Amino acid sequence: MTGGTVVSDFFHKDLLSMEQLSVEDIELILDTAESLKEISQREIKKVPTLRGKSIVNFFYEPSTRTRTSFELAAKRLSADTTSLSASGSSLVKGETLIDTARNLQAMSPDLIVIRHSSTGAPHLLAREVKACVINAGDGINEHPTQALLDLLTIREKKGSIKGLEVSIIGDIGHSRVARSNIIGLRKMGAHVTIAGPPTMMPYKAETLGVEVVHDPEKAVAGKDVVMMLRIQLERQSTLLFPGAREYASFFGLTPTRLKKAKKDVMIMHPGPMNRGVEISSEVADGPYSVILDQVTNGVAVRMALLYLLIGGSRRDTVD
Amino acid sequence: MTLWIKNGRVVDPLDGKIRKADILIEKGTIQRIGPSGESLEKGPRMEEIDASGKLVVPGLIDMHVHLREPGHEYKETIETGGMAGVAGGFTALACMPNTEPVNDSSSVTEFILTQARASCPLRVYPIAAVSLGQKGERLTEFGDLKKAGAVAVSDDGHPVKNSELMRRALEYARFHGLSVISHCEETDLSRGGCMHEGEISTRIGLAGIPAASEEIMVFRDVCLAKLTGCPVHIAHVSTRGSVDIIRRAKEDGVPVTAETAPHYFTLDHTAVMGYRTEAKMNPPLRGPEDVAAIQQGLKQGVLDVIATDHAPHSPLEKDLEFQEAAFGIIGLETALPLTLALVSKGILTLPEAVRRVSSNPARILDIPGGRLREGLPADLAVVDPDVEYTLRAEDLHSKSHNSPFLGVPLKGRVDLTVVGGRIAWRRRTKDTGRGR
């Protein structure tokens, strides 16, 4: 996978949501990621696939993990990368997103990665630019690359996603990770349960096609995968929960609570973790945790997406 | 100037009849309404208007618009808002006080009326603020405002949170003969929301505004109207629950009236999908069950008035991320076809529709208009109810183009608007509108 001759079946201009992807799209992305993963194990972690392509990482919201992951993914494929952050961008000077988009477009990047605090901002950007756009998280809406790396991690460990019992525990209502995962997991045939205090459930959550439980024991019992979400302690001011101590005692994932899960349960967390709040250190560092595998797979999935969107030749241009 | 409008079907909202009749207008008033076909001696300065196949209705009265002047003239002025009004069949507008400065003093009220006299083709009735600066702290000088020409008071988009202030406003407003219009929103509950809290907000990941945030305040205002015996008018009702609360209040004899806007009986929250900021307003578009309840509320007379909440915004406020975009859409140039659609669907009769857009707002604000009678000021519109067309941004008279109804098939529009006996607006082209 080093030349420009590989034919791609991936027909999307942008990756904005899990909603837009078919099962075949998701499988193609995961297969591609799996085959590219090996590059990160080499001594010289670089292939020339995206040489001459330029990628802008545009982060309106602070991010360490996702941003680093995208940068490494681009660099390992030899693309040129530039990073913009909200504090250093024209945003603070009052420029609108559309104007920023037009200015970026005028510099002809091949792909823009955007993270933004407003739902739908990547969609707005994608309408304005010719470059491909990847949504690296928009508001409380979606974080599709996180869901894809989670799917890759689950598939790697479990062989298949179909039929698995997956629980997502935490502030589902404000979690783009949860929303993208719910959509992706359901598409791939998993049964999804969401859990947390009622204040953290989205309105009519069951319309998302998930089972909703409020009992933490039930949320874990018999599960193949348990995904813990970061509790945003700063949200205490929004009355969603009384405090970290109470949250930990009712919903924190501890070794005792974990006993109810299946024997080969996988524990996931998109990070950054609040140790001792939503997850105890024993669980986070324990034998069932795949939290660091998720991070490793993040680079592979993002390499795959960059490759599928701007690398290789599209079938429509070859035929 | 003398106008002779012949052969039109004249809608009388009061007796509920539609008659083929001719209307003679002289010196600003309706001189005669008589059966069609009578011959009249043609005077030297008489214009004959053939209204065959057309409806003749009392001029529409919009009791809830934002004209943006003074302060935000780049969005709309009293002149352009008035042009949009007459092009939509309106002969009178009542404008909300959230200008800059806020209309909380007689000098701002007088300024609005001076501008209207100088440049606006229709009647403008200022609505003053309930509280100074719309801050919800101290009452404005209702007496002075009334003397200057205000017809009602409202803090509109900055709803009065303090229930005692609201109570005193109701009592004091009645003493001065002013209506009180309440934008019902419990802002602690709606804060951060940008669309209806429902299945769609859950699906597309936008923070919701629950129906309860409106209904709590509708109920509070109903309670205060009951307590004081003073009338209150509920602005832009959008939920089934609000309709139910108002229905029960009316059955109990509480002096409450209410309006809704065309978008609330036409669109539901799915219109937001794709993060379309032209479908973002407050209150937000609700669920289909709410749309049905609003239609029934209009039919049953629980909702007295259709008002547009015409809220012009420029691309500066609308071409943004959905969460950052301003609330509000324009409505003056689409209210008539959207209301006529309710007539086509059999939800309202034509005279009932005219009562909702003309007679009832006139009664609630205690201003002239809303009927066609000999001796009354000639405020009327000639409407082609059958023409099908789509509106484009360049067809609009409003300075702003933030409407979800551009490019959407519409039926029915205004050919001629007469304000005080003078032709305030006339459709220029003879085209049918189809394929425009």
The CATH superfamily of the largest domain in chain B is known as: Metal-dependent hydrolases
Low-confidence segments of chain A, given as residue ranges, are 1-6, 314-319
Beta-strand residue fraction of chain A: 15-25%
Radius of gyration of chain A: 20 Å
Which outline of chain A best applies? globular
| Distance separating the two termini of chain B | 33 Å
CATH architecture of the largest domain in chain B: Alpha-Beta Barrel
Radius of gyration of chain B: 21 Å
Kindly state the percentage of residues in helix of chain A: 25-40%
Secondary structure class of chain A reads alpha/beta
Structural class of chain B: alpha/beta
Q: Main beta sheet of chain A, described?
A: 5 strands, parallel
Mean pLDDT rating of chain B: 96
For the largest sheet of chain A, list the strands in their spatial order: 8-7-6-9-10
Average pLDDT of chain A, rounded to a whole number, is 91
Helix content of chain B: 25-40%
Topology, number of strands of chain B:
18
Total number of domains of chain B: 2
Structural account:
- The complex is a heterodimer of chains A (319) and B (436).
- Mean pLDDT of chain A is 91; it is low at 1-6 and 314-319.
- The two termini of chain A are 20 Å apart.
- In chain A, α4 links the parallel β4 (111-116) and β5 (132-138).
- Chain A contains 12 helices and 11 strands.
- In chain A, strands 8-7-6-9-10 form a 5-stranded parallel beta sheet.
- With 319 residues, chain A is α/β, with parallel strands linked by helices.
- By secondary structure, chain B is α/β, with parallel strands linked by helices.
- The longest helix of chain B has 18 residues, at 211-228.
- In chain B, α4 packs across α7 (211-228).
- In chain B, the strands form 3 sheets. In chain B, strands 1, 2, 3, 4, 5, 16, 17 and 18 form an 8-stranded mixed beta sheet that branches. In chain B, strands 6-7-8-9-10-13-14-15 form an 8-stranded parallel beta sheet.
- Chain B has 2 domains: 2-56 and 377-426, Urease, subunit C, domain 1; 58-365, Metal-dependent hydrolases (TIM Barrel, Alpha-Beta Barrel), CATH 3.20.20.
- Helix content of chain B is 30%, strand content 23%.
- At the A-B interface, α4 of A face α6 of B.
